[in-house]
Amino acid sequence: MQVKIADSWKNILQNEFYKPYFKDLTSFVKNEYENYQCYPKGKDIFAAFDFCAFDNLKVVIIGQDPYHGPNQANGLCFSVKDDIAHPPSLINIFKEIATDLGKEYPQSGNLEKWAKQGVLLLNATLTVRAHEAGSHQKQGWETFTDAVIKQISKEKENIIFLLWGGFAKKKSKLIDKKKHYILESGHPSPLSANRGYWFGNQHFSKTNDILQDLGIPKIEW
Q1: What's the pTM value of the predicted model, to 2 decimals?
Q2: Which of 8, 49, 64, 118 could anchor a disulfide with 54, C-beta 3.0 to 4.6 Å?
Q3: Which helix H or strand E contains 114, and what residues bound it?
Q4: Are the C-beta atoms of 104 and 205 separated by less than 8 Å?
């Protein structure tokens, strides 16, 4: 695995790349990609950072694993490539946006347009073996992405963290709550959403209200 991460993030994260855990992680990922079908494509592993410049960062959304089906994962959490059927969690995200903001349900599930506006779509684990959910967990990715969250908390101010579901909510301990905003709700997956823990959270309008109060351009969700 070659670490090709956007220049705006290099100074913030470069110390991580020289730590023993990251060298072990690199070896693991390289071996997995050589011997198994893995997602996303190698060039997309760090796409969350490529599309969202550190200086432009406004919002952080934390996912868990990349999608493990063919042609789905594009390196941004909850996002799929153009012309790919929307997974259940993404459907519920778009439904909530439609209700919250009165917008039409979009055709494309590609969330690059969010990332380019300053939304970091960060999975805790950045790679996965095809059809094996969680297969690259506990190999070092979580250590790296926790470091990303800590550095954002340390180096930035007034970032809005959207923590959806139990896994994401655990990341709140990495965030300085005096400097940043945290919005929590259930996960958009059908299991959580259908129990009433997702719909109606209004996270998209609430995020834009905070940005407006800060004098920062709102996100076009």
Answers
A1: 0.95
A2: 8
A3: helix 112-116
A4: no
Q: Do 135 and 1 touch, CB atoms closer than 8 A?
A: no
Active site residue 65: yes
Average pLDDT, the chain: 95
Percent of the chain residues topping a pLDDT of 90? 92
**Helix, strand, or coil (residue 119):** strand
- Report which residue type is found at 76: L
What percentage of residues in the chain have a pLDDT greater than 70?
Answer: 99
Q: Are 124 and 145 in contact (CB under 8 A)?
A: yes
Give the Å distances, CA to CA, from 69 to 33, 80, 90, 130.
15, 10, 14, 6
Q: At residue 193, does pLDDT exceed 90?
A: no
Which tokens belong to 8? 């705006």
**Residue 202 corresponds to which tokens in the numbers above?**
């209004």
Q: What angle do CA 193, 197, 202 make, to 5 degrees?
A: 95
Give which of 66, 77, 166 is closest to 119, Cα–Cα.
77
